[in-house]
Design goal:
The protein is built from 15 helices and 23 strands. The protein is an alpha+beta fold and 526 residues long. The chain folds into four domains: 64 residues, no CATH class; 252 residues, 2-Layer Sandwich (BirA Bifunctional Protein, domain 2), CATH 3.30.930.10; 113 residues, Anticodon-binding domain (Rossmann fold); 71 residues, 2-Layer Sandwich (Translation Initiation Factor IF3). The strands form five sheets. Strands 3-7-8-14-11-10-9-22-23-21-20 form an eleven-stranded mixed beta sheet, sandwiched between helices. Helix 3 packs across helix 7. The N and C termini lie far apart (60 Å). The chain binds one RNA strand of 75 nucleotides through helix 1, helix 2, helix 11 and helix 12.
Length: 526
RNA sequence: GGGGCUGUCGGCUAGUUUGGUCUAGGCUUGUAGACUUGGGCUCUAUAGACCCCGGUUCAAAUCCGGGCAGCCCCA
């Protein structure tokens, strides 16, 4: 009772001292809120929360998350760092799968599936490999109610479990080359800084694994995989990449050397788009993968492994997306064309609907993926926004005006431009437009990459780049890992790649000034 | 690896500073209907939330501790 009284006392004091000022505050905030509400409800651009509410160049990180969630590509899962890939994301991944499968199957690789559980002993066999992966391995220690005698790793990559089996499969030179690939999920237990698509504890990938009789063959395979990846990134995803070799400190744990593709994101951070490793004979030694050659002698095999992941979809979103949402390259878009009928009352709605269907069918016959959005319950404006959010490359509108003039209205997503095409030329025009969009997206991304690439001559210049907008800094490097480590410590930038296209260093090492070995691409990275 | 911030209907949020008229308000979305349809139209009705566990207290969305999740910054 005493406390109640003291509360009433305090409340009375509060009322006496602060009440009116709070009322004023409240009034003021209400007014401001009302003004924003007017802007939102009357403005051309701003609208409800259905769309993306931040601008790409104002809050990139928030923009990225919103685009993914609101376009319906993915969602968060209940477990930290795990994501749900939704219909459109899987559809895109399936497109990538189809392209990769077509390419590698044409060159004699075949798909397999190995188990996701790897005995600890396997993982431990190659010391460097184990050391590299062990900090982020998830372990199964119990089955049902019974503790396991040997704990099982949930695969962080499949070299060890595959190569234990390779040792059984490979006996003779006739068994070589062995070229397999698998599509699967991978678990790497990231502790923090997880991000949709880019860094998740579980992700999907493709891992190719090959074994060869000679070093030269393995080298050719490493190069082959990387070239195909480059083709996919540039000619399908419309993402320009820099290709080359990783420095020793960045190479795959257990490899002789790693080659990689690196792309540049709009926020100035690099993203690794794929890797192709030359494993040399390290695994062949520890797993005892040997064959009897034509020379009747015993030899160890030479191996490669290479992979790309669902991460590439994250790059796609970041590079091509805009303030209205996703922008998808036509070759990867799950749906390439959406047809929206615009039915006015009293303006032959049945005819418009029929015409829309006719156009959609014709486009489908031409091999395009088409959605006919004839939902009655949404207005055309609402549909336009929705399909733009989802990044569908081309939209066709068919309304009374079009009907009368025997034309269709074609709108392209990337530059939001409308044009009017005679109805009987529609299919050809759309096909041409899709190609144009594909090329324009690449050209634009290429221009951005060039703009975010700077050749630097001094360490000061280097630091300025990294402290500013970021991007690639092309700089001379002596080859010493200490310099690399210092640079990372001081600027956050690492060597992303030492390009295949060698450039003569114009200066000494950017850090120590000693004679430079290479020109390397440095950047902060995801 | 270190530091900081946040968690309220499906989404955005008000309320938390100062525990109590909060039986948690608004907008949006969802559902039903009407009206519309060339850029997220309008109206009516209706549904829907305090992250989890514990503590303090007569009383917790509000304070404290822990957990889980998300975000940001630095290395």
């Amino acid at each position: 009772m005493g406390k109640l009284l003291s509360w009433m006392q305090r409340k009375r004091e509060a009322l006496a001292t602060g009440y009116f000022s709070r009322q004023h505050q409240h009034l003021w905030f209400s007014t401001v809120r009302f003004i924003f509400w007017r802007i939102e409800t009357t403005g051309q651009i701003a609208m409800s929360d259905v769309g993306v509410t931040v601008k790409k160049n104002e809050d990139f990180s928030e923009w990225y998350t919103q685009v993914i969630l609101k376009s319906g590509l993915a969602d968060y899962a209940p477990v930290k760092g795990c994501m749900i890939l939704r219909e459109d994301a899987i559809a895109m991944w399936e497109k990538i799968q189809a392209i990769v499968n077509r390419k590698i199957q044409a060159t004699g690789h075949r798909n397999v599936y190995f188990p996701m559980f790897i005995p600890e002993g396997f993982l431990k066999k190659e010391a460097e490999h184990f050391e590299g992966f062990t900090p982020e391995v998830a372990w199964v220690t119990q089955g049902g109610n019974t503790p396991l005698e040997e704990k099982l790793a949930v695969r962080p990559t499949s070299e060890t479990i595959m190569y234990a089996t390779f040792a059984k499969w490979i006996r003779s030179w006739r068994d070589l080359p062995l070229k397999i690939n698998q599509w699967c999920n991978i678990v790497r237990w990231e502790t923090k800084a997880t991000k949709l698509f880019l860094r998740t504890r579980e992700f999907l990938w493709q891992e190719g694994h090959t074994a060869h009789a000679t070093k030269e063959e393995a080298e050719a395979e490493v190069k082959y995989a990387l070239q195909e990846y480059q083709d996919i990134m540039e000619n399908y995803l419309a993402i320009p990449v820099v290709v080359g070799v990783k420095s020793d400190s960045e190479k795959f744990a257990g490899a002789d050397y790693t080659t990689a593709l690196e792309a540049m994101m709009p926020d100035g951070k690099a993203l690794q788009m794929g890797t192709s490793h030359n494993l040399g004979q390290h695994f062949a030694h520890v797993f005892d993968i040997k064959y009897i050659g034509e020379d009747e002698k015993e030899h160890k095999v030479w191996q490669t492994s290479w992979g790309i992941t669902t991460r590439t979809i994250g790059a796609l979103i970041m590079i091509h997306g805009d303030d209205k949402g996703l922008v998808l390259p036509p070759k990867i878009a799950p749906t390439q064309v959406v047809v929206v009928p615009i039915p006015y009352k009293g303006a032959e709605p049945a005819e418009i609907a029929a015409k829309a269907k006719e156009i959609a069918d014709k486009l489908r016959e031409a091999g395009l993926s088409v959605i006919l959005d004839d939902r009655q319950e949404y207005t055309p404006g609402w549909k336009f926004n929705q399909w733009e959010l989802k990044g569908i490359p081309v939209r066709i509108e068919i309304g009374p005006r079009d009907l009368k003039q025997q034309q269709v209205t074609i709108a392209r997503r990337d530059i939001k431009q409308k044009s009017f095409i005679k109805e009987n030329e529609a299919v050809a025009a759309v096909e041409k437009l899709l190609e144009e969009i594909q090329n324009d997206l690449y050209a634009k991304a290429k221009a951005n990459l060039e703009q975010l690439t700077a050749a630097v001559k001094t360490y000061n210049e280097f630091k300025q780049v990294m402290a500013g907008k970021g991007g690639f800094a092309k700089a001379a490097w002596c080859g010493n890992a200490d310099c690399e480590a210092k640079i990372k410590e001081e600027t956050g930038a690492t060597i992303r790649v030492i390009p295949f296209k060698k450039e003569e260093p114009q200066t000494g090492c950017i850090y120590c000034g000693q004679k430079a070995k290479d020109v390397a691409y440095f950047a902060r990275s995801y």
